[in-house]
Design brief:
Structural class: alpha+beta
Largest sheet: 4 strands, antiparallel
Strand content: 15-25%
Radius of gyration: 35 Å
Shape: extended
Amino acid sequence: MKIRILSICTLLISISVFSQKKSKTLVTIDGDKTTVAEFKRVYEKNLDAIDNEEAKDVTKNLELFINYKLKVKQAYQLKLDTLPSYKREIETYKNQLAAPYLQDTTFIDKMVKDIYFRTKNKVKAKHILIRTARDARPKDTLEAYNKIVKIRNRIVAGEDFEKVAEETSEDNSARDNEKNGRKGNKGNLGYFDAFKMVAPFEDAAYNTKVGQVSKPFRTQFGYHIVKVDDLKPSEGEIEAAHILILDTTNVGKKKIFEVYDKLIINNNFEELAKQYSEDRGSKNRGGKLGKFGTGRMVKPFEDAAFSLQNEGSFSKPFKTRFGWHIVKLIKKHPIKSFNELEKELRKKIKNSARMQMSETAVINKLKKTYKIVENESAKKILDKKNIRAIPKDSLQETLFSINNKKIKQEAFIDYIRNRRHKPVFTLFDMFKNQEILTYYKKNLVNTEPEYAYTLKEYEDGLLLFELMQEKIWNKSSKDTLGLKNYFEKNKANYNSKKLEDNKGEIMNDYQNYLEEKWIADLRKNSRIKIRKRELKKLIKHYNKK
């Protein structure tokens, strides 16, 4: 019922928040003016969806419009907008409605194109990492940064990247591990494409030219430098199946070649996989592994799978650290066109940490637009060790201001009281960014007309739902005597002479009766003035169409 009412509200009314000086007044209700432009916006909004000519009648639509405004006006008089349930629902809707405005669409559009390029092309890179704690203080951060700069200078001066990585990188995979016998990768990461690395790392790799070393950059792990060795088109994804013998010795080798010989004779890969494969996860499916791209499998397996040219062909036996394999190519999935992939890429971006970058882009724009002034004297509390224990009466200084809005120290202390996972100076930046966004969201009604219109529609529609519940639906269901009297007076209109036989239909008619009576009372107690000259112009305008 609520959805139905809100839909009706959207059809009937969209109250303008912005004055339209050039538009003349069409109707005045108790001194509140509605302009021609406001009514036209409402009327035209759903005009194309109406195929009934009578329903398109301008005069009738104006009468419905007036009825709606009278109801909403009474809802405000009854202070239904102060109900806690109403306030909660409006706050939830505001957040949903504001969400698109908190994203930089230009930034996202560029990101989608960048991600498509990175999907079509894979990069081969190696890196060196100097770790920093997530809550590192500026002094520690600077120390790590200076360390990575010195390492980069050594490589730029001519030292071998892999040698330096093995010696200095704090990514343990760069060095040999004697305990488990693992060979170090000397910083080599192999090929990767979009979404395989954290966003800042991916950005740095794709923005560095082949053969060059990037400038130091930071991720959640610390400071890195990257050297790019190659950039080439991606093979896309493939579907493959395999037969696995877990024994890595010559015994396993002999067994896999016996299976291979049988495969050459009968070419029944699926049956042989079910019979001989020791991969419990895939053997019952005939060895099928599903769809995968580069970087998902160990390198010898990936090389063997992607080297197969024809669908249905299979490899000779080969060895990985897991055992001996034979792999079969089932199907190739080349990279789709941008138009085919755009929707999917946007969804992936939306569900990734990259959306935070879009919000950051919005905040950075707002910082340039707003006048933001920090009070250095008030900021001295950030240096106090017992900052969360400072009494409230000592926290009344303005910490910073956004245009004309002042944010006191007390608000910041409330923000950090249960946030102890980050240093205070980091929390201050987070708090400031939050306040900037809050200020922006609260002012959307003044800066974004479409947001203001849509919000007002929803607010008034929700109020009307509460009012209809009170005045019509609850009243009709509780007033059994009134319903009975209505039926007795209108019995001739119904086939059956018993109320119980037609209760649904009669209840609906009774509700319509109550609503008509209610609207008549509202109109009787209101001063309504329609400017007939403007109405005639409107009718003439739409008759021409």
